[in-house]
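Give me structure tokens for this 278-residue protein.
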Amino acid sequence: MRYLLLLLLFSCSTVKHQESSKLFFKLQNYQEFDFEDVKDSTIVIDLYNSAPKVKQSKQRIKALKENNNLIISYMSIGEAETYRPYYKNIGKDLILSENSQWQGNYTVKYWKSEWKKIIFNYTKEIIKNGFDGAYLDIVDCFHRFEDKKLYAKRMALLIIEINNYAKKHNKNFKLIIQNGLDIIDYLQPKIAKNFLHSIYGASLEAHLSERNKFKHTTFFEKHFRYYNRNNKQLFAIEYLKSSHEQKKFFNYTKQFNILPLVTDPKLKGLYYIHKSSE
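Here you go.
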């Protein structure tokens, strides 16, 4: 997810969280009036306002929070992005292969202290700008390595360290992971417990559809139940165009207390659908 303006506005479920109503997802085309009428919701936006070096203003964040909104900032922790201010100073020995689907995004050695320092500094900027938490992307990059147990552990430890760092500055800071929900399959019990303690919720993007068709999958169902049992908020984001397929998706997510969203595939905020129209 690049230059993310991700808006998560989610409704009440059996999992207890700040009361909210809907889920929105927008990556680009920031407008000054975006979300000005949004209330009682969780809004996830990028720290930067489209232009790589222009941050969202503290005034804008404050204004969004005044409507009882929870404001979360996007942050990629598994890839280095060439358009981020930190990239010009990053050690090239941290960089691995480029993501074939996203030009300018490179798998990074996320377990290295140099990368952690970059992420901690980025987290600090997020907190300074008044955000309530961070939306962590590319958590699932541990699958890109042969020794999944080792690299899942390294990813979990990074997330635990981000949480510990953030809580020193804001004890209520929240982390939401995107994809990689199955990381728990590879963790030892003690690390799994600390990992769960470190996150507020988990989001699944583009894993419940294929070629514009809803894809029923049993793979993630045990993970959905696991996060439900541990009182974590679940989200699912898809780009289905057919109202019939959307209905299947929405019905499926109800089984697991997942807060769903269907939106446009280019993530321009052209439309947001939260429930079946049929």
